[in-house]
């Protein structure tokens, strides 16, 4: 897929923000420890989290910096981020409503820029060049890749049934069609790859790769799995239109039939961290 075949639009995650806190598994605390150790973070400097969503990574890493700035194109995501920051008493976080392509937007310079499950939605060559100029000479670009809406297929004995992801995917396809949806467009070949070439062309060196074990088995409720589905761009609530109530009823039917005592279990995904230097 070439990046020209799909165009971003503001409906990409419309209606999904409120589902993130419920449906997405939080990043493990060991992720902050691994990034902090790798970069020698000591509470100084500024963090720029690009495509921050509701602040899942922003708030985890904020204690490692003097100031953290979360940037996202979805206003509802930022509202959710502010709410979560207030809930945990995070006072060193700022939120900016803008697309990554609008950077630097007079935001200044940063010690670290992070992209968590977000870079593929952007004009990657443009954003890489602009963010590189925003990093301090000793700064770093950190890409975090992990699926936080579902765990891996797990053959070991779990305390509760594994969520029926295959059936869920089939149900989504029965409502929205077999080709992955994203905003007002389609992603027949998925999101683009080739990040390494883009980063090298933008003048970055590296990368250094770290893997953080997701590890623990988590229990998840019918409500959490329902929200996990609605947290995805490919099954965001707006895509169903007036069929949303029917889809949700069918989804909950699949889940309640499969769950035991209303619960599922699965293991957290490993988190891949890729660090580039300007």
UniProtKB/TrEMBL annotation:
Alphabetical list of Gene3D superfamilies matching this protein: Vaccinia Virus protein VP39
Q: Which GO terms describe its molecular function?
A: methyltransferase activity
Biological processes annotated in GO: methylation
Highest taxon of the lineage:
Bacteria
Methyltransferase domain location, by residue?
48-139
Keywords noted in UniProt: Methyltransferase, Transferase
InterPro entries on file: Diverse_substrate_MTase, Methyltransf_25, SAM-dependent_MTases_sf
**UniProt-recorded name of the protein:** SAM-dependent methyltransferase
> What is the species listed in this Swiss-Prot or TrEMBL entry?
Micromonospora luteifusca
* Lineage summary: Bacteria, Bacillati, Actinomycetota, Actinomycetes, Micromonosporales
């Amino acid at each position: 897929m070439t990046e020209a075949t799909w165009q971003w639009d503001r409906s990409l995650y419309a209606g999904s923000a409120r589902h993130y806190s419920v449906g997405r598994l939080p990043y493990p605390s060991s992720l902050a420890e691994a990034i902090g150790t790798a970069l020698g973070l000591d509470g100084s400097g500024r963090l720029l989290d690009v495509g921050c969503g509701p602040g899942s990574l922003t708030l985890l890493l904020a204690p490692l910096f003097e100031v953290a700035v979360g940037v996202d194109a979805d206003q509802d995501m930022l509202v959710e981020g502010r709410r979560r920051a207030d809930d945990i008493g995070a006072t060193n976080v700022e939120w900016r409503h803008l697309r990554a392509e609008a950077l630097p937007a007079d935001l200044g310079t940063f010690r670290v820029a992070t992209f968590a499950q977000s870079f593929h939605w952007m004009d990657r060559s443009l954003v890489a060049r602009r963010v590189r100029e925003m990093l301090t000479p000793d700064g770093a670009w950190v890409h975090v890749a992990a699926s936080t809406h579902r765990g891996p297929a797990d053959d070991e004995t779990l305390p509760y049934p594994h969520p029926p992801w295959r059936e869920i995917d089939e149900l989504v396809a029965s409502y929205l069609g077999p080709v992955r949806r994203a905003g007002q467009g389609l992603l027949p070949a998925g999101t683009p790859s080739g990040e390494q070439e883009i980063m090298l062309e933008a003048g970055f060196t590296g990368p250094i790769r770290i893997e953080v074990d997701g590890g623990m088995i988590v229990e998840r409720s019918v409500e959490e799995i329902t929200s996990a589905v609605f947290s995805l761009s490919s099954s965001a609530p707006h895509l169903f239109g007036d069929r949303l109530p029917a889809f949700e009823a069918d989804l909950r039917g699949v889940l309640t039939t499969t769950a035991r005592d209303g619960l599922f279990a699965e293991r957290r995904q490993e988190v891949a961290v890729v660090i580039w230097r300007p």
